[in-house]
Backbone:
């Protein structure tokens, strides 16, 4: 069997108290009780309010050969697919690569403009990773989130590198990174402070 050559990377924005989203998420408020209007504007101000200051981190967000996300990150639809929801990112999502969406409900692949195709995986995180690695062709695979999905991959020992963007705010409750994850040994590779965020990258010992 060929050993995969690409890394498995997590890339996620969290609050200073470790949450990627607040409580009570809805279609109108995808980040729930986030201290604002539920759009995640405070968490992600570093990307949208000060992009020039964070250009290097923004530019590497979507450089993987394939991506994985949980269904909650893909959209608000729950249960069976009763409508044609195609993600929060419009007709030309920023990924430009295959995206594997974890779900309990089967759905045919959904091609989008710009090279993104959503593939819906019903048989678990390992299957999604195997498929993403094949699609990446030796390139990196990025697990985008949300935190619950990343926690599953961390608990299974499948993440090589953590890229955290820590926003200077607290949410108090919600979906928290590292929840239910066994103790990890992390090697800090990089840290950089900016006005709206601190970027920290760790290597995860496996």
Residues:
């Amino acid at each position: 069997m060929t050993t995969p050559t690409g890394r498995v990377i997590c890339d996620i924005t969290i609050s200073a108290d470790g949450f990627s989203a607040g409580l009570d998420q809805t279609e109108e408020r995808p980040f729930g009780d986030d201290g604002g209007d539920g759009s995640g504007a405070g968490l992600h101000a570093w990307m949208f309010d000060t992009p020039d200051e964070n250009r290097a981190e923004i530019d590497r967000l979507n450089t993987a050969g394939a991506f994985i996300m949980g269904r909650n990150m893909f959209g608000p639809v729950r249960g069976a697919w009763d409508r044609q929801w195609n993600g929060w990112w419009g007709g030309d999502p920023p990924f430009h690569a295959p995206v594997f969406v974890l779900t309990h409900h089967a759905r045919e692949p959904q091609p989008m403009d710009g090279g993104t195709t959503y593939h819906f995986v019903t048989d678990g995180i390992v299957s999604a990773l195997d498929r993403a690695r094949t699609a990446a062709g030796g390139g990196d695979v990025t697990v985008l989130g949300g935190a619950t999905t990343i926690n599953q991959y961390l608990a299974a020992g499948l993440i090589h590198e953590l890229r955290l963007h820590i926003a200077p705010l607290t949410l108090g409750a919600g979906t928290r990174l590292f929840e239910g994850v066994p103790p990890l040994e992390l090697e800090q590779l990089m840290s950089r402070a900016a006005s709206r965020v601190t970027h920290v990258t760790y290597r995860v010992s496996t």
Summary: The two ends are 20 Å apart (CA to CA).
